[in-house]
Design goal:
By secondary structure, the protein is mainly alpha-helical. The chain folds into two domains: about 80 residues, 2-Layer Sandwich (Alpha-Beta Plaits); about 200 residues, Rhomboid-like (Rhomboid-like fold), CATH 1.20.1540.10. It contains 13 helices and three strands.
Length: about 300
Amino acid sequence: MRQIGSISSEQAARQFVDFLLTLEITALAEKEGEQWLIWVRDENQLPKARAEIVRFLQQPEHARYRDAERQAETLRQQKSQRHEAARKNTVDLGQRWRQPLARRAPLAMTLIVLCVLVGLASGFGDQWNGAVMRSLGFVDPGGGPAPTMKSSIWVDIRAGQVWRVVTPIFLHYGLVHVVFNLIWLYYLGTQIEARDGTPKLAALVLVTAVLSNVAQALAVGPSFGGMSGVVYGLFGYVWMKMLLDPAAGYRVSRDVVAIMVVWLFLGFSGVLDKWFGLSVANWAHGGGMFVGMAIGFLPRHFRRAG
């Protein structure tokens, strides 16, 4: 903080300090003897502030200073409101992260538990013709292989079993499959739920589940399962939020971005299937990621357009 000069009148000193605030220069007036010393906080603003005090001392009655008090008060109120909002956000988020995981991210934890329970009940895909797999798959194969014709994959859904557009996300084929998906669900889902709330996560999961499942069924057929389409949707959403709205606090490392994008590319290229024998729901991955990115991007785009 540096002194830039002095003013003999308290009223004039306070008026000048208010005027500086309207110029985004923070200053204060301090009495010393018969004078009021003017101090400026930011040394980078000293040249401008010194020029302004010279102008003020030459013409203290100029019209430019008359509304300074009212304008400065408005600026102080706005700053106070922003500070209070930031304080509440910081406290609320901090308190939320200190809560037990089941309380700060109840939906994410519920989805994880459901995937584990369904996995155990279905033998993690081994009981492909069991009641669980037949009830939750995109179609009920009815004791045989799932139909592959596009006209056939809707037969159960058209019959009223609409849950089938969502429930394949709970089916997994093997322990490794479910473990990897649930690690990503925990990493991404808890971020979203802690910051945007349970309803937002629920909407993201539902929308990405439906669209990624439908994309996979239409492109390849109904014999698939797993949370990975939703995971890619959550990743796309968090990635866009991190890039477009850093203040939201979302974080994914460059390594995570690289892993997700490279895995998606390898899946569509056929490398994972041909070289490693991995059957990957590529269209669910791609569809989920596209939907998540769109949900993260479009609201900000429309706000700018408006």
